[in-house]
Amino acid sequence: MTDLKRKESKLIKPSKSVTVPETIAERVLNFELEITGLISCVVVLGHFLLSSPLATKCLTLSYKVGPDAYDKGVDDFYFVGFWVVAFTFLRASIMKYIYHPLGRLVGIKPFGKRQRFAEQGFLFTYAGFFWSLGMGLLYVGDAYGPYWLNTSQYWIGYPHIYLTSLTKYYYLMQTAFWFQQIYVIHMEKRRKDHYAMVTHHIITIILLVSSYYTNFTRIGNAVLCCMDLCDILLSFAKLLKYLGFTTLCDVAFAMFAIGWPVTRHGFFTVIVWATYAEPDKYMDMLWEPAKGKYFTPFTQKLYLFLLLSLDIIMIYWFSLIVKVVYRVIQGRGAEDTRSDDEDEEEEGD
């Protein structure tokens, strides 16, 4: 009788394909698109139909001081807060209505695999757009002139208080995106480097907010451009992997493996060195908030600590890249060593 009951219990046991929300993350994800879409619509309607001052702060840039010049202030947090929600809505929408249908069209049947395909698709779309925009700003310059491949321009003319509208849109939206990524990494399937990722995102947010407040958006833009290129290449390689283009995936990953040390260790090291060696050549390094000056020997040390902490995390990730390169050389193909085993989940889905 005992054996019979065990067999019956197995027969009535719910299958893995039955989606039952078991965690807070799953419950939130079930209504993510609707909740963020509703909030975004309320803000947009509040601005255009009701002329709500709060909604206007969320949708438009504050502190305009000239035809194309903007100062900074606490009201900028409304804009950042709105875009945290808006990016969540855009991400969910693009994944659901663009990349999931595309995944089905090309034959990616398991939902779990298609979900990861969609996640990488959104990241590829976002990073591609904002890297292109950031490089344009880096090359053309801001309200104070160009600073392409010229680290001395990070400090000459400091403080760089006023921003063009495009520069301010870019910087605040990038800040919002990284705040939103804290939410994303806790919603997605947790990877083996989860805590390294959380630490990286927190440091990035601190650097973005502090550099914006202390009028160092030039160096902040340069750092973002160093980081975003590799996100494009890695996401593209993963998209090719999910599409089944193994050889092209390996080629794309090779480009990523070359681009990583060049941008995230080569160019980034130049920026770190410039932060260490150049400021006192071009600045008085005095604490004068009334004049927009916040860079002193003490704040210089704080920035160096944050940048070097970021570098340590990237060195850890580069060690994982080397492992994948070794797999490719062995003919085993490129695979993200941070990912957990997906076979069981995909079989169930």
TrEMBL record:
A GO CC term attached to the entry? membrane
Pfam families from the UniProt entry: TRAM_LAG1_CLN8
Q: How does it sit in the membrane?
A: Multi-pass membrane protein
Residues annotated as transmembrane? 35-55, 77-99, 120-141, 161-183, 195-213, 219-240, 252-276, 302-322
Q: Keywords for this entry?
A: Membrane, Transmembrane, Transmembrane helix
Compartments, record wording: Membrane
UniProt domain TLC: residue ranges: 112-330
- Report the InterPro entries cross-referenced here: Lag1/Lac1-like, TLC-dom
A single GO BP term for this record reads: ceramide biosynthetic process
Listed GO molecular functions?
sphingosine N-acyltransferase activity
Q: What is its main location?
A: membrane
Asked if Transmembrane is a keyword of the record, the answer is yes
Q: Which domain of life is it from?
A: Eukaryota
What is stated as this protein's family in its record? Belongs to the sphingosine N-acyltransferase family.
What's this protein's name? TLC domain-containing protein
